[in-house]
């Protein structure tokens, strides 16, 4: 086993000559350095809180305003205090005016309707004003108080757009019935529910996010593995090292560097067009967080600081400190700790090996077991070490990698391993798991309730850009640097799991394995063309892909279905996601006529469908989507004890095609022209409906699009590999239309 380390600050013995006190200077030094680190962190947080609280003002601006005011009024010494107070009030007034002007500016979204590549004079003037009132050198949370609140759409608009979205999916008789329910709701119950929702929107920071987090995620009693958690992959064609401990060393160090930047608010806020700020609230629970199970609802547990990570390897759990001598461990030192864990030959304690299966099964049995068996003693201490860790690491004992001679099977296996593994070798409750495989390939598994995929994607881009190019490896494949001669080893966590608890673990594992075995994953790199060629067709790449997905689905199932495309609402404070209903009347019209020989008709309908999709996406981003509004109206109706046939039917329709684009947010970190392979191959998620598909895609550079498809083996209607082939053919067929148009011209 890795060496155990106990730092004892002092020892004393009682003898006839008195008390012999022996101080351990090294232990006292470590205590001093640890305290110093904690106080530095508190000071930085305090300073950042002040800077964010007064933004777009600054201490320098405060001095300028106060001194200028006092100089202008020629204040004497006896009136300095009054001058400072008046100057401070003037400074605060200026800050509030700038904030409110900026909030008003950010509430205008006309810039989104400009044609690609052209910017109107009104938009240019607006961008200049936004820059002027945005201040200088913003930190991560600087714009939070200046972001507008998510608006509540009108009942009339939501009902109209809902009927429009379901028209292509319903026969005339069912549509007429739904139209009647909609009109009745719009006239009677809807306005009453809307009044309560409006009241909440005036009072709360965001009228959707807290209910969305609670009712969609935390109150779910089924497994979060596959159903909620999602994954992110490593480089597809690049293998920096085959040494597992070394890859873990660089990756963990890069993640901890990102956490340091996050703690200091040095991560730059994401800005559209380098000017328009997006909400950063979701970053707050990225580290030191865990989803804690409850009998009826889970809760998110977050601690301000954590100096360790939790590591799992071959059935054993370890606590690994990330700081020594008052500093963060270097990559080679972290590799040294991972080597010690890999070399540990001790056997798992009874019940320890498959303990994490509790986080993979149903939530209620896990909550009851946690309360019964993990509330005291060594079990509580060990569980705390995991739940309060910065994040969770699995040193996987399998090998996963893209293999050129077996691309389909290797990528499918890789995706399934990241999504669920063995069902007991990931701690699915942690905010995220770093998984490092035996051959050096790695990936992430992330819990969904605390944030959406772009947030974890931002971290992952940082890690991948740091790992091979900035941190690097030696010729032998080890991390750069030297091992530490006196570094204390990892601490093996201890458990006392009774037989009754082991039965619960086994039951949860059975549920999880049945779920995992049913997942049909298919990942394929689409290399025929990418966004570079799509843009030459003067079409949005996302609209192009979404229309291709509709065409592929129609060919796959011979019918259309309710389609979910995730869009973000982070232009608003505490915004998360909204749904773009991608199956539109225009798209269905194009799909139906694709067999027609009329090129002109096909192209005109295709362009109409693409324009409609872009408009739907804009509406979702600017708070005019319908699904979050309908969801919140339903929640209000339940609080009031009102039964709405309309809302009940709306929310019971399954999303048989659930899609999401994984955005590449920090393009400046990667040289995609010279090295397009140095970027993540994206990530994916499990199927939302039992008889449906989940599709995630990432646009990599100009010439590559990676698709991640999931479905269930148990459904006779779905086949992920068949659907993948249909997607590829649909992409090629749509491109052919544009190429035929060029030839005709």
UniProtKB/TrEMBL annotation:
User: Where does the source fall among the domains of life?
Assistant: Eukaryota
**Could you mention a single GO BP entry for this protein?**
carnitine metabolic process
Q: Name one GO molecular function term.
A: carnitine O-palmitoyltransferase activity
Main localisation, per the record?
mitochondrion
Q: Which Pfam family is one of this chain's hits?
A: CPT_N
Domain (Carnitine O-palmitoyltransferase N-terminal) ranges: 1-47
Q: Which PROSITE patterns match?
A: ACYLTRANSF_C_2 (PS00440)
Which subcellular locations apply to this protein? Mitochondrion outer membrane
Catalytic activity entry: (R)-carnitine + hexadecanoyl-CoA = O-hexadecanoyl-(R)-carnitine + CoA
Which membrane topology term applies here? Multi-pass membrane protein
What EC numbers are recorded for this enzyme?
A: 2.3.1.21
Q: Which residues does the entry assign to the active site, renumbered to this chain?
A: 448 (proton acceptor)
Q: What is this protein called?
A: carnitine O-palmitoyltransferase
Q: Which organism is this entry from?
A: Cyclopterus lumpus (Lumpsucker)
Q: Which gene encodes it?
A: cpt1ab
């Amino acid at each position: 086993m890795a060496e155990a380390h106990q730092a004892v600050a002092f020892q004393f013995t009682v003898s006839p000559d008195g008390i012999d006190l022996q101080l351990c200077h090294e232990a006292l030094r470590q205590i001093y350095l640890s305290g110093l680190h904690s106080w530095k962190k508190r000071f930085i947080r305090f300073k950042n809180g002040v800077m964010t609280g007064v933004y777009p003002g600054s201490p320098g601006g405060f001095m300028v305003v106060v001194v200028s005011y006092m100089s202008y009024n020629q204040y004497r010494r006896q009136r300095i205090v009054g001058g400072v107070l008046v100057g401070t009030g003037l400074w605060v007034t200026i800050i509030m005016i700038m904030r409110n002007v900026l909030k008003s500016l950010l509430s205008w979204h006309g810039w989104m309707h400009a044609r690609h590549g052209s910017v109107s004079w009104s938009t240019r003037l607006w961008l200049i004003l936004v820059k002027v009132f945005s201040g200088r050198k913003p930190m991560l949370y600087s714009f939070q108080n200046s972001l507008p609140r998510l608006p509540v759409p009108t009942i009339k608009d939501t009902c109209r757009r809902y009927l429009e979205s379901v028209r292509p999916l319903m026969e005339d008789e069912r549509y007429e019935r739904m139209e009647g329910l909609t009109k009745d709701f719009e006239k009677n119950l809807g306005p009453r529910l809307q009044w309560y929702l409006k009241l909440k929107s005036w009072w709360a920071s965001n009228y959707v996010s807290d209910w969305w987090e609670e009712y969609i995620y935390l109150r779910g009693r089924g497994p979060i593995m596959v159903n909620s958690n999602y994954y992110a992959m490593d480089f597809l064609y690049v293998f920096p090292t085959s040494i597992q401990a070394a890859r873990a060393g660089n990756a963990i160090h890069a993640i901890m560097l990102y956490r340091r930047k996050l703690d200091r608010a040095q991560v730059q806020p994401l800005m559209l067009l380098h000017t328009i700020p997006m909400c950063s609230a979701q970053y707050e629970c990225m580290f030191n967080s865990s989803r804690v199970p409850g009998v009826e609802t889970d809760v998110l547990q977050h601690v301000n600081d954590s100096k360790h990570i939790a590591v799992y390897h071959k059935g054993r759990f370890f606590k690994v400190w990330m700081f020594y001598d008052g500093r963060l461990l270097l990559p080679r030192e972290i590799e040294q700790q991972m080597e010690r864990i890999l070399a540990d030959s001790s056997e798992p304690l009874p019940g320890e090996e498959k303990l994490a299966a509790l986080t993979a099964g149903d939530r209620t049995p896990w909550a009851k077991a946690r309360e019964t068996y993990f509330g005291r003693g060594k079990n509580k201490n060990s569980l705390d070490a995991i739940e309060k860790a910065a994040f969770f690491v699995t040193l996987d004992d399998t090998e996963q990698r893209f293999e050129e001679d077996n691309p389909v099977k290797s990528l499918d296996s890789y995706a399934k391993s990241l999504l669920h593994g063995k069902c007991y070798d990931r701690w699915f409750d942690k905010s995220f798991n770093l998984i490092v495989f035996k051959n050096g390939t790695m990936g992430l598994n992330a819990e969904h309730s605390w944030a959406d995929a772009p947030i974890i994607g931002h971290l992952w881009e940082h890690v991948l850009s740091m790992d091979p190019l900035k941190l690097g490896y030696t010729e032998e494949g080890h991390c750069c640097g030297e091992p530490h001669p006196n570094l204390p080893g990892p601490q093996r966590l201890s458990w006392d799991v009774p037989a009754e608890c082991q039965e619960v673990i086994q039951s949860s594992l059975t549920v999880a394995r049945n779920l995992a075995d049913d997942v049909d994953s298919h990942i394929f790199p689409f290399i025929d063309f990418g966004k570079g060629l799509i843009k030459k067709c003067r079409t949005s790449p996302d609209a192009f892909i979404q229309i291709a997905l509709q065409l592929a689905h129609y060919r796959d199932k011979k019918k259309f279905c309710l389609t979910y495309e995730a869009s973000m609402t982070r232009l608003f404070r505490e915004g998360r996601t909204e749904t773009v209903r991608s199956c539109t009347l225009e798209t269905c019209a194009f799909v139906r006529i694709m067999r027609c020989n009329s090129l002109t008709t096909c192209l005109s309908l295709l362009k109409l469908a693409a324009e409609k999709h872009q408009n739907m996406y804009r509406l979702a981003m600017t708070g005019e989507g319908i699904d979050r509004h309908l969801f919140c109206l339903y929640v209000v109706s339940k609080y009031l004890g009102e039964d709405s046939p309309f809302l009940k039917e709306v929310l019971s329709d399954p999303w048989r095609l659930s899609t999401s684009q994984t955005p590449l947010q920090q393009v400046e970190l990667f040289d995609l022209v010279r090295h397009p392979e140095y970027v993540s191959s994206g990530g994916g998620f499990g199927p939302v409906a039992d008889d449906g598909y989940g599709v995630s895609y990432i646009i990599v550079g100009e010439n590559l699009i990676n698709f991640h498809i999931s479905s269930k083996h148990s459904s006779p209607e779905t086949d992920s590999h068949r659907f993948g082939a249909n997607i590829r053919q649909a992409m090629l067929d749509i491109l052919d239309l544009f190429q035929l148009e060029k030839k005709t011209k």
